[in-house]
Structures are given as C-alpha cells and as structure tokens.
Description:
With 371 residues, the chain is an alpha/beta fold.
Amino acid sequence: MTRVVDQVGGVNLAQGMPNFPPPPELIAAAHQAIDGDFHQYAVTWGTPRLRQAIAGKYRTFYGMEIDPDRHVTVCCGSTETMLSTLLAVLNPGDEVIIFEPFYENYGPGCVISGAQPAFVPLEPPDFSFDPDRLRRAVTPRTRAIIFNSPNNPTGKVFSRNELQTIADLCLEYDLLAITDEIYEHIVYDGLGHTPIATLPGMAERTVTISGISKSYSVTGWRIGYAVAPPELALGIRRAHDFVTVGAPHPLQEAAVTAFRLPDSYYVGLRESYQARRDLLWGYIEKAGFVAWKPRGAYYILTDVAHFLRQYDVPDDAAFAMWLIRNVGVATVPGSSFYAHPELGRTKIRFCFPKTDDMLRDAGERLLKLRS
C-alpha cells in the first residue's frame, strides 16, 4: 500500500512508521557512534552496554531481575527476534497457538520452523478471547502460545485476568509464552503494561520480545531483543547467529541512550500518541466507519461492510485500493492479519504515528465518504 500511494499520491496511513523524527538525544548518539570505533562485528548476541541497558530497563519498569549475559539476546528488530525464537524453541510437528488477528509474520515464522499454527479469535468489540476455546486449542503437540500486547492491529491491551488465564494454561500444560511487547510504552486511558513474565511461575517459561522501533521512532534501525531463561536464550542466540549474525554495531551503541531517557519522555510519548489517536478517531467516526477504539499501540481497526455495499466493492483488499484512488488515503486490508481471510474481509486498519497536519489531511479526505 505504501508503494501504491507513493505512485498515485495521497496520505499514507498504512505502514506503521512515524513521519516525525526520533528523540534528538538518540540522533546525536547515532552520530557519535558512527564517529566512534564501532564499525566491525559486535558480539553476536548484542553489545555488552546495550544488554546491560536492557536489563536495567526491565528492572526499573517491571522489577524483573535480568542477567544481561545470560538472559538478553539482541537481534535485527523484533521481527527477526521472533523468527529466531521460533527456530530455537520449536521442532517439526509442534503446534503453536496464536491469537487472531495477529501481526502477519507470526504464522509464517511457525511454518518456517516446521510447526503448525492454531488460531484462537479475539472478538470485537473489546477483542477478548474465550478461555474455554483457548483451552480446547491445546493438544499434546502444543509447545507455545504467542500473543502481542498491546496488539497490532486491534489496539487491545491484555488484562491482568487474561494474562493469568494464559499463564495458568502454560503452567498446567508445560507451555512457553512468547510475547511481542514492542508497543509496551504506547498505552492509553491510564492503562499500564504488564509483562506476562512477571506473573508467578512465568519468568522460567516466557520469551519476552521487544525493541526500540516503536517507542523511540526508529523503525529503520532494526534493533530488537529477547529476554528469556538461559536455556532458551542459548538457542535463540544460535538461531540468530545463523539468521543475521548481528544487529548493526553503531546503532546498538546508540540505542543505549534510548534506555537512559527520563520518565518524562514516556509520559510525553503516551500523551502525544493518545492525542493522535483521538484526532484520527474523531474523523473516522464522522466519516461513518464502524471502529474499535484502541487502548494501546498506534492503529485503529475498522469495519467497512456498509461501504463495500455502498460503493460496490467486493472485499477489504479492493476497498483499500479504492480508498487510495478515490479518497487519497492508504490503509491496510484487514484480511492480512487473519489466517482465515474471511474474518478480515470487511476490515481496514489505519495507523496514526503521524503529525497532526497529516492526520487532519487524511481525516478531511475521509469525510468525503459521507457524501
């Protein structure tokens, strides 16, 4: 969708990347690292300073005691971190439970690893899951449960009770929890983020995946990481070594600065993204979309079934192209987040990590749908 909107012109609310700069301290740190002696391979699983900074972050934010030498693996973004994790912990024939809708790389990552994904739906309006259905999805072959909180594309933030339900199943059936927490600092309406690894008994069976792309507006730096028990971390490091060898050395050094930003940075991050959410949400409602207000991340998932009928468009993919050509706004078809495409056939996802003027431009264009 980004390529199409670049060709025809319009406002890109498809790909989840900011159109504003990262913190100036981070840019300065990158310049300093480039000018320094960080041009050759780093330690494969991450520079010592960065791993120490990551461990310090988890201690400060979540009270987790992390050994940077035994628990932390730095990879090329959270997507590669997920793939290396799946390659490390899965065997051919294993099954993995994934909540649906999901970030589109989870399913292929399981298939590449020789495992079979099984899907449990998150149901609107609050995108909760049925605990009984989750339990029924567990089989003797199940190895892990993957989930993303805050969630892309729904904006769902898993509640403490939901996390406990997942944890109870992991403990009962000896499963791993593999969590994508890349949006951990982008939560709204007074909510906080709780890593499932902080629940009793879960630190020993959780791989926590995150990175610097979203919270610090550096999606192109490709610095992600896994926090895992030593026996799992060893496998993740081996897989990562063969997948990418190592993340960019100077950007690892610069990333240390991100974890030293003051608390006020995170307050401002949440407040600014909540304001952007509310700005775009207002336009989307006025334009006539059926939408679910996100509690975290920076996406708004909508239902456009009535627009498909109104404009005689067959499905979400066709409507996304129609929006670009007729309204000038790029979105992502909802079916790309579902293993069962029919569940996303009437859904469209907007993203809002954009400046206010860009969101207003998109919003005014969307209001044309009312006429």
